[in-house]
Amino acid sequence: MPYDQNVNMNDVYAPAQTNIIIRSQSARNVTASDILSSKQARERAISNHQRVDLEKFTGFLRNITRQTSTQKCAKSIRIGLESAGARFKNHPVAAADWGKTLTSIGYRKINLSFDQPKKGDIYIIDRTAKNRYGHIAAYSGNGWVSDFKQSGYAVYRNQNVNYSYYRMD
Question: Rounded to two decimals, what is the model's pTM?
Answer without folding.
Answer: 0.70
